[in-house]
Design brief:
This protein is mainly alpha-helical. It contains 3 helices and 2 strands. It has a two-stranded antiparallel sheet with strand order 1-2.
Length: 103
């Protein structure tokens, strides 16, 4: 399935409140949750893509809701601070597993 949103379309998650569309061709599919942070459509299905885009263009409340939820998800799950903390925790676990009891 491909995530779909209207207004502005880009190839990656957005930290601003614009909607986006992305093809299911690998990458981080966890960014889009169907009906919560975007709309999913099957790859290579132009009719479904067009219908989803029209739905968002015609339903401004839905487009706004999806955009805000997407922004919240990106800022909470993919922030720089979280990346640093998770990387540090990974290194600490590896050190502990190797017998270098740090912390």
């Amino acid at each position: 399935m491909s995530p779909v949103a209207a207004r502005r379309i880009s190839a990656s998650p957005s930290s601003n409140e614009t909607n986006r569309a992305r093809l299911d061709a690998g990458g981080n599919l966890e960014v889009i949750q169907d009906g919560l942070t975007g709309l999913l459509v099957p790859p290579e299905d132009a009719g479904s893509l067009a219908a989803a885009l029209l739905r968002l263009l015609e339903d401004e409340d839905l487009a706004t809701l999806l955009a805000k939820a997407g922004r919240e998800q990106v800022t909470s799950r993919f922030s720089f601070d979280r990346l640093v903390a998770e990387t540090e925790n990974l290194y600490l676990r590896q050190l502990q597993a190797a017998g270098h009891g740090y912390r």
